[in-house]
Specification:
With 732 residues, the chain is an alpha+beta fold. Helix content is 15%, strand content 37%.
Amino acid sequence: MRMKRSFKFAGSLCLGLILLISNADAQQGFLKLEDIWGSPKLFARTAGGFNSMKDGEHYTNTEETQHGTALVKYNFKTGKAVDTLLKASQLISSPDTIDFSSYTFSPDESKILLAVQPEAIYRHSTREHYYLFNRTNSSITKITENGKAMYGTFSPDGEKIAYVRDNNLYYYDFTSKKESAVTTDGMKNAIINGATDWVYEEEFSMDVAFEWSADGQHLAYYRFDESKVKEFNLTYYGELYPREERYKYPKAGEENAKVELHVYSLNSGKNQLVASTGSSWEYIPRIKWTRNPDILSFQRNNRHQNVLELVFYSLSKNSSQVILKEENNSFIEITDDLTFLNDGKRFIWTSTRSGYNHIYLYGTDGKLLRQISKGDFDVTKYYGFDEKSGTFYFQSAERSPLERHIYSVTLDGKKKALTQSAGSHAAEFSAGMRYFADTYSSFGTPYTCSLNSSSDGKIVRVLTDNAEVRKTLSGYTTGKLDTLSFLTEDGTRLYGWMILPPDFKPSNTYPVLMHVYGGPGVQTVTNDWDGPNYLWHQFLAQRGYIVVSVDNRGTPGRGLAFANCIYKDMGNLEVKDQLSAVKYLKGKPWVDSNRIGVWGWSFGGYMTSLLLTKGMGLFKAGIAVAPVTNWRYYDSIYTERYLQTPQENPKGYDENSPIHYAKNLQGKFLLVHGSTDDNVHMQNTMDFVTALVKANKAFDLFIYPNKNHGISGGTTRLHLYTKMTNFIFDNL
C-alpha cells in the first residue's frame, strides 16, 4: 500500500472553487495553489529512463516530429543523436495508425516490439496492442490480431514473443506468424495464467508471471486459481446506470488464490507441474531461470512471511532442492536482488540476517562464499554486478538515514563512494555498467540528473538540472527548512524536518501542521525534493504555519530492529512516537500548543485517524486521505506480514484500528476518499463514518467519484488541495 510522494501536476485550472485568502496571499513572492497544482512551471522533471543499448555506449529515446513519434539512438558520452532507428514516416505508411506508448528491443536488437493503445487495469498493469518492427527489412507486423494483450516479452533468441490475453498465456512465432496457446482454461475472476492476481501485483510488486528459459525452449509460468477468493465491488458513476466492476481481493485472514508453478515445453507442447501452494507454503513470490536451462529457481514463503526458501527445480529430474533458507522472528520483505552469474556457479542474494540489509555471494550449491557489503547501515537498492571488473554497485543509507548515496565495492572489499553531494541519489546503470544516470536532489532543491562514470562517479555530462524551475522557485519567499532529532521517552532517537515561516520570530507563537506517513517501506524524512508536497508545505509556512514531519519506528533506512519492532502490534509504537514528537514540539516556546494539526495519505491517513482518536486530544485538527480504518478490511499479504491473521492476533487488529475508537475522536476532522479506490477500499471510510455518527461525532467528509487511491486527473489535485487548505485555515 506504499503511497509514492511524487505526483504529476494537475491540468487546467480549477474553476468555481473559492479559496479562503488571507492578507498574506497578496504579498509578492507567495505561492498560490494554482502555481503548484494548476501549472507546470514548478514541476521538476527527471531525465527518465535512458533505455541503454547492449553495447553500453548508446541509448534510445523517443522524439516527437511533425510526422509523429520517432525512435532515436544517442551516444551516452556526448548526448548527440547518431541514428534514427524508427522513423515516424515508417509508422504512418503502415496499414494501421501506430502511435506507440512504449517499446522493447529483442535481445540482438534487430527487432522492436511496439506497445500501442495502452489500457489501464487498476493501478499498475496495462493491456495493449503489439506491433513488431523488423529493423532488417523495415517491415511492421501486428501481433495482437485477436485482441489486446499484456506483458509482451521476447524469447532469448528474439524469434518469439510471449504474452497474456484473457487470462491465458500465448506465444507468437515470427517465422511462422502463428500464435500458440500455452493455456486455455483462463477465466476472469477464476483462473489466471501468466499474470498475477491483484494482491501479488500490489504487495509483491509482481505482475509478469512467466519467464523464458535461457535456451528459449521452455516457459515457466504461474497459474492462479482465485475461484474461491471473495470478490469486491467497485461502482463507477457518470452514466444513467452506474457500471460495476467486480474483482478478487483477499482480505486479512481470508482465503488466498491457490498458486501453481508450471513449465511448458515448446517442443513437446506439454506442461510440467513444478510447485504449488498449500498448507506449508502460502506464496511463491518469485521465479527466475538459472543460467542452466534445466534449472528453474523459485522462492516460496509461509503465510506469516517469516520463512523464505530459495528452491532449484530440475526439469530433467523432476525434483526440487532447497538451496537457501531465510528465517526471522518477524517478517521478510521480498526483493528482486537474486542474480545468477554467467559462470553458472554463483549467485548474488541480499539479506537482513546481520540486522541490516546487505549483499551476499553464494555458490549454486547453497554455500556462502562471501558477504559483500558490511556495516551498521542498510543497502537500500542493489543495482548489479559487473563480472568483468568484479564490481558490485548499490545504494545505501550509510551516511545517514535521511540520505541515499551510490557505492561500488569489489570482490576483494575495496569500496568507493560514487556520489558526494549531501542529499538523495538514485542510479540507473547502462548495459555493462560503464555509466549511470544519477538523479539527485536535496531539501528544497529540485532534481539534477547527470550521466556519471561508474569507475569513479565523475560527471560526464548533465542531463537536466531543472534550471527554469529553480529560477522560478527563487522568485518565491520560502521558509527555512531545518532537520530535527530527539529522544522518545523510551530512549529511541527519531529524526524529522521542520519548515518555519519566512518571517519566523522566536518571540512569537505559531500553529503546527504535522505531515505523517509512518508505515513500512516509506520515509517522509529524507533529504530530497518532495515536489508538490514540499511546495504546499511552503505555501502553508508562508501563511504562518510551522510544518513538521517525523519518521517513527517501523519506517525503513535504519536496520531490521527499527523496521520490524512493530510486528504483531502495528500502529502502537508508531502512534507513541508521533505523540513524542508532539511533546518535543510543545517544549518549544514558539509553538502554539493549542494549535497542532496532522495530515496524511494512505498509511498516513490511517495514522492521522488513529492520532485523532487515540491522541489524548493533543491535535486540534486532522486530515485523513484514503485511510485504512480497520485492518481487517485490508489485503492479506500486506496486513498479515505485519500482524499475522485476525484469527491469530485479534488484539493486534482491533487495538490499533481507528474504527474502534470513533467515540474518542477529538478535534476537527476531514475524511477524504476516492470512490473507486481498489487498494484501500472506500469501505474503510464509510464504516468509519458509521461509527463516528453512532458516537455523535462531528466531522467533514468528501468523496471523489471514480477516483482511485491516487485521487488525481484533470483538476482533481487542485480541488483536493484547495479543500485541505481551506480546512486548515478554518480549523487550525
